[in-house]
Each structure stands twice: as structure tokens, then as C-alpha cells.
Amino acid sequence: MASRKKKLQGLVAATITPMTEHGEINFSVIGQYVDYLVEEQGVKNIFVNGTTGEGLSLSVSERRQVAEEWMTKGRNKLDQVVIHVGALSLKESQELARHAAEIGADGIAVIAPFFLKPWNKDVLINFLKEVAAAAPALPFYYYHIPALTGVKIRAEELLDGIQEKIPTFQGLKFSDTDLLDFGQCVDQNRERQFAFLFGVDEQLLSALVMGATGAVGSFAFRDLSTLCSNLVLECRRRKPS
User: Fold this and answer.
1) Active-site residue among 44, 141, 142, 173?
2) Is 143 a catalytic residue?
3) For 9-67, what is each residue's pLDDT tens digit?
4) Exposure check for the chain: N or C terminus, fewer CB within 10 A?
5) Residue 84 falls within a domain, yes or no?
6) Residue 133: in which H helix or E strand, if any?
7) 3-class SS at 195?
8) How far apart are CA 101 and CA 83, in angstroms?
9) What's the pLDDT tens digit per position in 116-141?
């Protein structure tokens, strides 16, 4: 896998978890999936066990096995594998974070716990801090998806001073339609070189213009990559000096 110091940017595939007709994980096709992403779509970064991968519908054992299979089949083919390790249970999330480090993942991501929800920024950061500490050598990303978690703490508020509490924090997967919040995240943290990965496919073009450094999604990668690059170049060309 790529060096962990390499910034996560560009297109990142949110991978599905393939299933058999009997509801068991179909590990046999993950190798083909890797080859399709790399050879057909030109995508070498993946986000495993997230929303698209239905990670929170899998058991801890299944999540571990899925992560292991992606790491095994992606070796020497993929650049970065980020494993989503969020869970309602802090101990389960920590277990998954430690496992991600053991198998050589390039980063971990965590959503906010969404049953007994954190009621303010400090409570949420304390949860994230405990998970990040379980894998202290891995880059840590916060997965902001309030439509599913119901946690309405603004990402811009959360990022204020977050590296003082979580030294391994490297960026944000922003899966929300609040472009004002996203824009403020970018504008107020330009000097920190965070990865700002946008996760709402339908608004990606707008997010790129606002400063997104990458995208995590399940879109048609190669065509969208060309379209996005052309749009950003055109916007920069027309921007008044």
C-alpha cells in the first residue's frame, strides 16, 4: 500500500459489499472488483465498509473479513485503503480500528454514534478521540453524514481545534447537502492541509469549485473525473483577478 504520509485526494470508490443470494458475503468477487476499479475506471483509492458497503449492517466479524479481503486483493494494486470503523459501541469501534492497523490499512474513518447521540461538539470529539487512539499510527477521518446519524453538529464547528485533541486527524468525508458548512470547513482550514472529501454525488461539481480535494462515492468514475477536472479548470480561468 501507499505511504501513510500521502494525502488522500482525488476519486475514492465507496465499495459495495458483494453478497450471495443467501445473504452471505461473496468474497470471491472482490479480486475482480479491484481489477475493475483499477483497470477499467482508473481508481486506486477505496473506502471500505461505509454506507455504500453497508458496514453497519454487518457483524464485527464480517467487517473484519471484508477489510482483510480488500487489503489482500488490493496489495500492489491500490494506493490507499481507508476502512470505516464507526459503530454504536465504542469498544467495537476501537476493535475495528486496531484491526485496520494490524492488516496495514492506510487510514480509518468514523461516523458519529447515532442511537445515544452526542449532544455537543466536545462529546463527539471525545468519542472520536478514543477510537483514533486505538490506531495511533493511522490517519483518521471524520465521516460527516447527518442525514443518517441525526447528529446535527456542524462540521465547521467540529474541525475547530480538532487536531489538538486528535493528532492523527487528517480530514473529513462530508456527506451532507449543506454547502455553506462545507465551504466554511474549507475556508477556515486551508493552512492545515486537511483532505476535504465530498460525499454527495449530485453536488460534487459545486463542492469541487468550493475547494473539495476529492470525492468518495459510487458514481461513474472515469467520465466524472474528466468532467470535474474540466469544470474546475474553466472556473479558475474565469475567476476575476
Assistant:
1) 173
2) yes
3) 999 999 999 999 999 999 999 999 999 999 988 899 999 999 999 999 999 999 999 99
4) C
5) yes
6) helix 121-133
7) strand
8) 10
9) 999 999 999 999 999 999 999 999 99
Contact 96, 134 (CB under 8 A): no
- How far is the C-alpha of 122 from the C-alpha of 230, rounded, in Å? 40
Closest-CA residue to 228 (of 238, 214, 216): 214
**Residue 118 forms part of a structural domain:** yes
Cell (9 digits) for 186: 474549507
Domain total in the chain: 1
Alpha carbon 234 to its chain centroid, in Å, reads: 27
Q: Are 111 and 83 in contact (CB under 8 A)?
A: no
Q: Strands 214-217, 45-48: parallel, antiparallel or unpaired by DSSP?
A: unpaired
Active site residue 36: no
In angstroms, the Cα distances linking 84 to 24, 173, 223, 232 are 20, 11, 26, 29
The answer to whether the pTM exceeds 0.85 is yes
State the helix-helix crossing angle for 90-102 and 121-133, rounded to 10 degrees.
40
**In this structure, how many other beta carbons lie within 10 angstroms of the beta carbon of residue 202?**
9
CATH number of the domain to which 231 belongs:
3.20.20.70
